[in-house]
Amino acid sequence: MSAILVTGGAGYIGSHAVRALANLNYKVIVLDNLVYGHKQAIVNTDVTFIEGDISDKELILTTIRFYNIEAVMHFAAFAYVGESVLDPSKYYNNNLASGIILLDAMLEAGCKRIIFSSTCASYGIPVYVPIDEQHPQNPINPYGASKWMLERIIKDYHHAYNLDYAILRYFNASGCSTDGLIGEDHDPETHLIPLILKAITGERSAITVFGTDYETPDGTCIRDYIHVEDLADAHIKAYEYLLSGKGPLICNLGTGAGFSVNEIIQAAEKVTRKKVPVIYGEKRAGDPAILIANTSKAFSEMAWKANYTNIEEIIATAWKWETNERNGKYRKRLFSL
Hints:
Layout: E1 3-7, H1 12-23, E2 28-32, E3 48-51, H2 57-66, E4 69-74, H3 81-86, H4 88-109, E5 113-119, H5 142-161, E6 164-170, E7 172-174, H6 192-201, E8 207-210, E9 222-223, E10 225-227, H7 228-243, E11 249-253, E12 259-260, H8 261-272, E13 278-281, E14 290-291, H9 296-302, H10 311-326
Parallel strand pairs: 1-2, 1-4, 2-3, 4-5, 5-6, 6-11, 7-10, 8-13, 9-14
Antiparallel strand pairs: 9-12
Helix pairs in contact: 1-7, 2-4, 4-5, 6-8, 6-10, 8-10
């Protein structure tokens, strides 16, 4: 029986994909170095976990051959934009150089299908919105650049070595599993929704809103928030798309709608029935006013669209995770990236 290798499968998005795959009875092998992920994130008992790094070519070769891996879902990456500016070497070595090692090992072992976790950060400052897949890619930070570069390499490997691929460019991943069992908890946390919820619970003193004079209706940045379970579903559909022989594929993953920072704060207050302590700060360099996905290609090519489009519903899943963890229902926080 063939299997799917999920790199970074003990992290935030990867673990939701692993759970979705396992619940559909796919044979799943997780490879994670546990730098940011946590083994406890693998909640399905029939999933095989291997602690290791994608830079270990021999480990990749052995894993692919032993488990008869027919496709790789590649989530393993560092993803802090600010850190990537301060320490680009960390990002180019892990996200790019190690990514090339993974690709080379796949080819050597005879595995020629990859579903790559990419990002809207590869587009840089938008020329137009909504952003479609034909939008120019001009990343403005090493994180986005590392993803864009590996995209280019994957395309080159397709032409030279017949590597089949699906490149999925996420917009703002958000929310947690609807049952509250697994969720989002980065260290440090940089995502807006969990930061707001931590301000509500008192874990943080306040949420800082960076900039109130953008060219948007309320002056704050607008983003496209895509629920993590919708992301997991898209990866499964992309895998099935490649199996059908229709690849390669490049798709944006979002809802096609945007919410401002102020709207997210107001929605969180409505969901939690608590006031959010807010501090207003200056704009951050490189923050676009609006980032919204055009998702028509994902729908037309692989019949995928977001199920979670109500922002209050998305926030409610994150709040369920926060309150479950805080009330001691689960022993510890499970997630980082």
